[in-house]
């Protein structure tokens, strides 16, 4: 299984486990993530979800070849379903990030409540390099989190951000030594799960704007699909595949 599930003391741990592809997300992985989040939403025993990769890699983003074979970006597309599920999920989400966090590997973190990272970490959003635009409501959430100028450097210039820079910008809560990262993030998730669930979820909801996020996701998807069929993206994809 490319998505491994474990549960303890109110925390559902979702581990990206496709290490041979640097945890690049396939359509099946998106389906599995959506299914896991739906189960977590319905299960009162689950109070917190923790996303993690390996000690060396969180996610290299979309599996591009697999993604291109997924069809129209409509409500049936697994990627779209995952983005919408992230936006509508009502329980706290925590992430442990080490190594690469590219594309969706970074934008999904914007929906998490707590993010912990290790120093050998690189966040990057190479959408414009591929002739594409932001997704996962990152056009709304990233400027709100780090400011317009910093978000522009990431979303327009596709500039990478180190773990130390991400900490300064407010993208992550703390930096943790790589060997201790997964256990440390789990400890925080367990601490969160031990608190009164209604109070935590109510407080979380008050800090968020679900309608605005859902609207941003939809607006981005419309432009993303248009650009995906355009000549710039087609050329970028050809170049990428030739390099591979």
TrEMBL record:
Cross-referenced SUPFAM superfamilies: ClpP/crotonase
UniProt KW Isomerase keyword: yes
One matching Pfam family: ECH_1
Top-level taxon: Bacteria
Subcellular location: Peroxisome
Record carries keyword RNA-binding: no
Keywords per UniProt: Isomerase, Peroxisome
Protein name per the record: Enoyl-CoA hydratase-related protein
């Amino acid at each position: 299984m490319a998505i491994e599930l474990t549960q303890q003391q109110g925390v559902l741990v979702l581990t990206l486990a496709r290490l041979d592809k640097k945890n690049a997300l396939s359509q099946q992985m998106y389906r599995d993530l959506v299914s896991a989040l739906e189960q977590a939403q319905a299960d009162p025993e689950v109070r917190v979800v923790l996303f993690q990769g390996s000690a060396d890699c969180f996610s290299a983003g979309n599996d591009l070849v697999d993604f291109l074979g997924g069809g129209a970006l409509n409500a049936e597309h697994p990627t779209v379903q995952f983005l919408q599920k992230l936006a509508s999920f009502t329980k706290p989400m925590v992430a442990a990030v080490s190594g690469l966090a590219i594309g969706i590997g970074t934008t999904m973190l914007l929906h998490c409540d707590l993010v912990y990272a290790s120093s050998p970490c690189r966040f990057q959003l190479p959408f414009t390099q591929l002739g594409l635009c932001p997704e996962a409501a990152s056009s709304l959430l990233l400027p709100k989190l780090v400011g317009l100028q910093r978000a522009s450097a990431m979303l327009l210039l596709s500039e990478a951000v180190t773990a130390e820079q991400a900490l300064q910008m407010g993208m992550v809560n703390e930096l943790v030594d790589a060997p201790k990262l997964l256990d440390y993030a789990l400890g925080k998730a367990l601490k969160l799960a031990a608190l009164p669930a209604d109070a935590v979820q109510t407080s979380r909801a008050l800090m968020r704007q679900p309608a605005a996020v859902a609207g941003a996701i939809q607006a981005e998807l419309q432009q993303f699909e248009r650009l995906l069929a355009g000549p710039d993206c087609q050329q970028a994809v050809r170049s990428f595949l030739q390099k591979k």
